Every structure is written in C-alpha cells, then in structure tokens.
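Key result, reporting period 2: structure in, sequence out.
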C-alpha cells in the first residue's frame, strides 16, 4: 500500500487565511458569538483540508476525507485521468494541480495529488490502459 499526499497550494492557504477575517471582525466588534462561530468553521475546514489523503494498493485507489473513506475506486476500471481546473467540490484541497479520474457509468472524481507524475506512474503500473491527458 502506497500513500499519496494531497496537494495544498497557495490557493488553499489563501482560503484558510481569508476564513480568519470573520474572527478578527468579531474581535474588533467584541462579538463573542461571531468569534466562536468563526473559530469553529475555521477549525472544521482546517481539519477537513489537512485530513484529505489518498492511498493505493494493487487493486484500489482509496480516497480519504475527514479521516473516513470517502471513495474506493477499482484501478482496473479507470479508463482516463486528466488534469483539470474543475472547481467542483471534491476531495482536492488545491485548485491548481487537480486531476479528474474517470471510470465506467459516467463516474468521475477530482483529486489533487501533490506529485502528479508519481501518481500517474503508480496508476499506469497497475493499469497500463489508462488514457492520460494533461
């Protein structure tokens, strides 16, 4: 079983930084409810973003989000992977470096592996029939 780290780019950190604004506004206005809500939301997003990970064995690609198995994809069924700028909500913390994975029945998922070339190489070792775009 190999582990593939998810990419967290400047866009991820900028988003987290922007989430701090309501907390500072709550402090500025002494609004303890806003501060508590802001801190709670920030912590939820922070934990979610930094818990996204991908693992792969000989048969499956496992996508974990928030410490739970989010999706299990059979590698032999994957027919295409391609780089994308798709902004759809997905277990991909970074907008840059997103990869869409396709398998039959119009299924796809967007992830953001830190090292696309390593990810691609590992997938192609297990299924050389995957079409790679991008």
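The corresponding designed sequence is given below.
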């Amino acid at each position: 079983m190999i582990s593939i780290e998810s990419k967290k780019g400047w866009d991820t950190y900028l988003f987290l930084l922007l989430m701090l604004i309501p907390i500072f506004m709550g402090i500025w206005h002494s609004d303890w409810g806003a501060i508590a809500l802001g801190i709670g939301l920030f912590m939820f997003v922070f934990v979610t973003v930094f818990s996204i990970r991908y693992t792969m064995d000989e048969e499956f690609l496992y996508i974990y989000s928030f410490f739970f198995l989010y999706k299990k994809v059979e590698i032999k069924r994957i027919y295409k992977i391609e780089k994308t700028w798709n902004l759809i909500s997905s277990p991909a913390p970074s907008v840059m470096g997103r990869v869409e994975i396709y398998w039959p029945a119009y299924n796809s998922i967007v992830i953001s592996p830190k090292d696309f070339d390593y990810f691609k190489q590992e997938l192609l070792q297990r299924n050389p029939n995957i079409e790679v775009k991008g």
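The chain has four helices and eight strands. The two ends are 26 Å apart (CA to CA). This case is discussed further under Risks and Mitigation.
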